[in-house]
Write a structure and sequence with these properties.
- This is 1,4-alpha-glucan branching protein.
- It comes from Pseudoalteromonas rubra.
- Pfam families: AMPK1_CBM (PF16561).
- The strands form two sheets. Strands 3, 4, 7, 8, 9 and 10 form a six-stranded antiparallel sheet that branches.
- Helices cover about 0% and strands about 55% of the residues.
- The protein has a single domain, classed as Sandwich (Immunoglobulin-like).
- The chain has about 100 residues and is mainly beta.
- The chain is built from no helices and ten strands.
Length: about 100
């Protein structure tokens, strides 16, 4: 799940990436906005979700995926879109264009 918060005085959005993966021990966000370097997501025991907040420049689309336990790839089922990647699967897309 993606949630976005836009700032009136800054050209950036705070994006919260969330995924529920009950059997997962670790989940990492792997995205083009940080050169595809895995970012460890925090597990929230209360709602059983892995979460990560990240600020991104507005007016762009960014590709990302989730890496589960260092082995399995997953997409965000509520991403803003999906695009084919060079591995025969798809990447999730987060869009930081401000809606009018």
């Amino acid at each position: 799940m993606l949630t976005k918060r836009f700032f009136k005085t800054k050209n950036e959005a705070e994006v919260t990436f969330e995924i529920i993966h009950p059997e997962a021990i670790t989940v990492e966000l792997v995205a083009e906005f940080n050169d595809w370097q895995p970012l460890t997501m925090k597990f929230n025991k209360k709602d059983k979700r892995f979460k990560l907040k990240h600020r991104l420049p507005t007016g762009h689309e960014y590709h990302f995926r989730y890496l589960i336990d260092g082995e399995h790839w997953d997409n965000d089922d509520q991403a803003d879109g999906y695009v084919p990647n060079g591995f025969g699967t798809q990447n999730s897309v987060v869009d930081t264009h401000k809606q009018a």
